[in-house]
């Protein structure tokens, strides 16, 4: 499965915000009621028996699942099949036992929590406000080593998103999401606040319209962020002070202005108008050399991405060849090269290839063979691609344990992906899918 960076968010989910903007909570339920353009909106959440309401890190998981669903082609049944390790990568988390456990807990909370939205769920194609009641994850199946424990390297997850959620996504009620920036933020509550703020900038009835300032009563904004305040504005302010500071430092917010006293306090957000989106790969390269994100955005505005990409490649070559010696920090040396590019030699450019006569008309190239389709992939990527292809044809027959076994056998070399996929496709053409699955399970001893 080719994992792409997350680039979209559903406006219903992000605008209403169903995730508490705190790192840790012990709440079993919450409910907010407010007026919006003459409508009374009521939103409530009831947690499962063993878990608190979704909060903090759960926002990372829900955002990842939204974009994975889009990447999967937005299937009508809302089903997603993904390896636990791949989902960790999409969330921007480390692949470790700690985060395996956190991922399991996040999925359980999103599966068990029951949401009710009255008067606030947007059916945008029909220009109507509707009532919605759902679990974000309607069904959840996965494999573990002992059947009940934590995820491991082999774990496969098969889940189904709520019909209300998938219908909203398929309708195109989406907004851009700078996922590279979001996952780089240090704390879960900061990432939740960024996601809520970024959605609040869009007019829910006209998503093409975006604002540069937002002002809210502090207590109402606390409700929007689902922060329990007990009617005391200082509780909301205290919870959001650190996220505010980070979003200002990182260049997303220009300022956060608090006004008034007591319950009547308001918060005004001023967004940085020159917040520049940067190619994620280029941003990662600059981070490796210790250059802050805000400085990278400034450099992109001044020099453009093409120049910076060429310069950072040139920098690596000059350092490795010993022509450029790093005396203080790599960040300082790279910044000097950007500011004074002519102080250093340029690499020799290869001579242009000789011109060739115009080629004669050739027949259309045949589609690559299955072997070529899996060539040069790591075993893990090959396994993910195979599972994605199988899921297109066998989603009603194959279960999480089947995918677990397939993935494991590809990683150990017991299955050649191209050969298995060829057999699977042939079975579909012959109408023998059930026989293929039976043979597969027999071969895997499952």
UniProtKB/TrEMBL annotation:
Protein origin, superkingdom: Bacteria
Pfam name, any one: RPA
Lineage: Bacteria, Thermotogati, Deinococcota, Deinococci, Deinococcales
Protein name in UniProt: Replication initiator protein A
């Amino acid at each position: 499965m080719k994992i792409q960076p997350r680039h979209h968010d559903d406006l219903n989910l992000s605008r209403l915000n169903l995730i508490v903007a705190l790192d840790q909570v012990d709440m079993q339920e919450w409910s907010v009621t407010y007026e919006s353009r003459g409508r009374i909106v009521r939103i409530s959440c009831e947690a499962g028996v063993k878990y608190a309401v979704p909060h903090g890190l759960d926002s990372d998981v829900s955002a990842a699942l939204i974009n994975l669903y889009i990447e999967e082609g937005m299937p009508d049944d809302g089903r997603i099949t993904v390896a636990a390790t791949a989902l960790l990568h999409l969330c921007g988390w480390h692949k470790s036992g700690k985060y395996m456990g956190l991922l399991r807990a996040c999925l359980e909370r999103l599966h068990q929590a029951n949401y009710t939205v009255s008067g606030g769920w947007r059916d945008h194609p029909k220009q109507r406000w509707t009532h919605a009641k759902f679990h974000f994850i309607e069904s959840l199946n996965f494999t573990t080593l002992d059947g009940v424990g934590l995820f491991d390297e082999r774990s496969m997850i098969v889940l189904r998103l709520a019909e209300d959620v998938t219908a909203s996504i398929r309708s195109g009620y989406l907004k851009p999401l700078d996922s590279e920036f979001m996952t780089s933020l240090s704390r879960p509550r900061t990432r939740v606040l960024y996601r809520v703020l970024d959605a609040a900038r869009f007019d829910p009835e006209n998503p093409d319209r975006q604002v540069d300032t937002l002002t809210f009563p502090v207590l109402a904004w606390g409700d929007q962020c689902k922060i329990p305040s007990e009617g005391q504005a200082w509780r909301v302010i205290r919870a959001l002070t650190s996220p505010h500071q980070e979003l200002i430092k990182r260049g997303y917010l220009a300022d956060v202005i608090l006004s008034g006293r007591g319950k009547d306090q308001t918060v005004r957000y001023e967004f940085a108008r020159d917040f520049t989106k940067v190619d994620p790969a280029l941003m990662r390269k600059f981070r490796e050399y210790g250059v802050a994100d805000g400085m990278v955005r400034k450099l992109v505005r001044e020099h453009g991405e093409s120049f910076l990409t060429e310069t950072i490649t040139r920098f690596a070559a000059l350092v490795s060849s010993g022509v450029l010696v790093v005396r203080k920090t790599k960040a300082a040396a790279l910044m000097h090269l950007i500011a004074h590019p002519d102080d250093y030699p340029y690499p020799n450019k290869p001579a242009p290839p000789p011109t060739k006569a115009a080629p004669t008309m050739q027949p259309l190239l045949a589609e690559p063979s299955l072997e070529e389709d899996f060539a040069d992939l790591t075993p893990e990527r090959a396994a993910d691609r195979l599972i994605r292809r199988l899921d297109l044809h066998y989603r009603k027959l194959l279960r999480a344990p089947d995918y677990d076994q397939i993935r494991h056998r590809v990683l150990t070399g017991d299955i050649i992906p191209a050969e298995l996929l060829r057999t699977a496709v042939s079975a579909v053409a012959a109408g023998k899918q059930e026989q293929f699955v039976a043979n597969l399970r027999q071969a895997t001893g499952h």
